[in-house]
Amino acid sequence: MFFRNVKSAAEFALYCKSPLFLQSLHNLGNVRLQLRNSFHKSRQGVRRPISEPNPLDVLQIDSSPLQAKSLLKPFVFAVGVTSLSLAGCVIWEYEKLRSHATSFLKRPGAWLNTHQKRFNAQARSEPGPIKTWWSSLKESERVFYPILAANVLVFGAWRVRALQPYMVKYFCSNPSGRAKCLPMVLSTFSHYSTLHLAANMYVLYSFMPAAVASLGKEQFVAMYLSAGVVSSFASFLYKVLLNQPGLSLGASGAIMAVLSYVCMQYPDTKLSIIFLPMYTFAAGAAIKVIMSIDLAGVILGWKFFDHAAHLGGALFGMAWCFWGNSHIWGNRDKFLQYYHRLRKDSR
After folding, report:
1. CA-to-CA distance for 153 and 220, rounded, in angstroms?
2. pLDDT, tens digit, for every residue of 245-301?
3. pTM value > 0.90
4. Residue 250 backbone zone (phi > 0: left; psi -120 to 50: alpha; other: beta)
5. For the chain, does the N or the C end have fewer beta carbons within 10 angstroms?
6. d(CA 238, CA 308)
7. Given 140, 252, 260, 272, the catalytic residue
8. 252 flagged as catalytic
């Protein structure tokens, strides 16, 4: 049922110095790169043409001192985005079910005539390759590819030098930046490195089928978006407490929520490292090891990865598995009744 992969053993490689382990670590994708000011300095010993300077070398990054009161707006924003994501996905599910129910409740003659017209239209014109490809996708893939497209689009925008100042401002979360709230969401779809993007999307694609099968695509999207902004706030909180301003970007905070949810929902599932398929381990044990390493990174102040965002996303996925699925999504009836009355009154 699961893909055999290295993702769930992602951060074991942090203790290893060999190129093989470092390469396998990069292939995981459940890392949220923490870009600091050194990212924007010129690499020593590398010659660049004078006529084509790298704009990243001269960008000014906001790094003013951090204060606890600066967390208020990001906290309210995180709560708001989470609430809107849940409400929007609940409405999405309601409208989909209502559309299906309406089509079946129509008079049989009208229903048959409608489908006969559709059949005749399809017989006259064959569907295009894109429509055929989309129809052949699984439900989880129909959720994955829009997320992939958004990430690739943002990745392409990073390659446009004229846009890079705006990308740093709006697509990198930075607690000391002038734009604090919106980047908490946009940075979840932002990758500067090709390897970072490819690894993150590989992990998401591998674990998404199990998550969507358990949650449904509407609840999955709600959890994914909520986990992205919650992991960004966890990163903000850590940086403010230690007064360490810096940039963060990447989808791994949200992906860690998906990973931890799947590992907690199916703890006895056997996973393996992609280069060492003969060694298997339980998913429940793997997520505990990953979270322990992230906790160590938070305590010891490791800088290369945004361990606080990883840990925040993983904790959110576990909370959703044990509590959110049943107590939040499971109690959406009152909201649906309110929306139903509102929709009925507006007609």
Report:
1. 22
2. 888 999 999 999 999 999 999 998 888 776 667 778 888 988 999 999 999 999 988
3. no
4. left
5. C
6. 6
7. 252
8. yes
